[in-house]
Amino acid sequence: MISFPTTLHGLYINGQWSSGRDHLRVINPATEALLTTVNGGDEQAVDQAISAACEAFKDWSKTTGAERGAILRNIANGVRNGRDHLTRLQSSNNGKPLFEAAIDVDDVIATFEYYAELAEGLDAQQDRAVALPSDDFSARLRREPCGVVGLIVPWNFPMVTTAWKLAPALAAGCCVVLKPSEVTPLSELELAAIIAESGLPKGVFNLVCGTGLAVGAPLAADPRIAKISFTGSNAVGVQVMQRAAETVKGVSLELGGKSSLLVLEDADIELAVELACGGGFFNAGQMCSATSRVLVADELADEFLERLQKRAQAIRVADPFDPDVEMGALVNQAQYQRVLGHIDRGLSAGAKLVCGGNRPAHLPRGYFLQPTVFTQVPLDSALWCEEIFGPVLCVRSFSSEAEAIALANDSQFGLVASVVTRNAETADRVANALHAGLVWLNAPQVIFPQAAWGGYKQSSLGRELGPWGLQAFQEIKHVIRAH
Ligand code: NAD
């Protein structure tokens, strides 16, 4: 366990740490104990952070990609050197097992290194000639940083969602005001301490901890912010977009999901059960990409459900620091009650509980929940249609490939999907028919910084990661000259 000072500064503005007036209580979800208090900011702190970022932008926007890449590599190395501490912080504040938190930290390192490489490649592309259908004119293309950007992130993968925005924003030459989740600010505070030692000029990166209303809302509204990149719930995403609209700022949104795992008739059942558990119970199901709808071919349905029940009941729910833990705690009381409410409403709607649904008997304290599986879930119930964001799977059988695809696509969301089949042609055909931004075929939910993240419909606006994540923070300028 890590010991914390009683209070932590919640503001890092213009290269200086300070405290705001808002006392944010930071809880360990596995014990319900207070870890520390973070002194977060308000509209005034947001104003100061944006002013610092605007001032820093004058020089930072003129740096070369190579200079920015070198600093991103320093940040990646700082995270690597602090890997163990960051892993423990993430588990303490979020409730996820240490092995999952370590995956988060490695993802952060890989993301900063990837965008360092892209930043280093920018200089050679700058001012490239653009072919025109005329000898009277010539043109060159510039990609310039879009300005000072606001980054707002949630609590489920705090450091990761931050890195996916922060690394490309810095690579592009933007200056940043970051608002972490008030529920899980600790890893971002540590990341800020690493960035403070990375050689990044003061004011380029600013952090303002605080609540959505005190910090997120003024950040989204401020006319000096060129772009808001937001990850979180749909309800808040819509509010952010509305505020941003008033000053026509760019918006990227990564929102909710209701994704499916499709188990086709020729699937390897054992693999399908493993992928169902990974897609439903990793991070205690608190994933926008949770494949919480499991669609199984009629021929396999009984055997699959039996094996899934056995596997789900065997999952070791425990303290995140327990060496044998497989699933940790949910993030806080509000989320715990929300998921229990969904389970109750599912039962009232007539869904059949296969296993789970309660607190594990051996864990009287902490926000722990048994891995939960439902079947016979009505198609119009909240359990089937809404994002649960907890360790809850809904299993349903289908009689044809077309029915499976229709069931998977019947959602306001379209983030990801997984398909299990032994037939490569079928896998590709089904992947092409699914309305989702990322489809895994016989694979766990692996994520690479090189591949895009984001979805169709109400799951996303834009894409993160890959070159698309960088372009999201760039303006395009053409310069046309007459000869
Ligand atoms: P949330 O929407 O409650 O909060 C997200 C962030 O927005 C927090 O920092 C919060 O303080 C801030 N915020 C709250 N009100 C605000 C306002 N009025 N203006 C500006 N900012 C405000 O989401 P959460 O509960 O922290 O996270 C869970 C949600 O995030 C889920 O819906 C999940 O699907 C989504 N999510 C999506 C992705 C993705 O990549 N698509 C990834 C992770 C999480």
Structure description:
The protein is of the alpha/beta class and 483 residues long. The protein has 2 domains: 273 residues, Aldehyde Dehydrogenase, Chain A, domain 1, CATH 3.40.605; 189 residues, 3-Layer(aba) Sandwich (Aldehyde Dehydrogenase, Chain A, domain 2), CATH 3.40.309. Helices cover 41% and strands 23% of the residues. It contains 15 helices and 23 strands. The strands form 5 sheets. It has an 8-stranded mixed β-sheet, with helices on both faces. The chain has a 7-stranded mixed β-sheet with strand order 15-16-17-14-13-19-20, sandwiched between helices. Helix 2 runs antiparallel to helix 5. The protein is globular. The relative contact order is 0.13. The mean pLDDT is 98. Bound molecules: nicotinamide-adenine-dinucleotide. Nicotinamide-adenine-dinucleotide binds next to helix 7 and helix 8.
Structural class: alpha/beta
* CATH class category name of the largest domain: Alpha Beta
Major sheet description = 8 strands, mixed
Strand count: 23
Strand content: 15-25%
- C-alpha end-to-end distance: 69 Å
Radius of gyration: 23 Å
Relevant CATH superfamily of the largest domain: Aldehyde Dehydrogenase, Chain A, domain 1
Fraction in helix: 40-55%
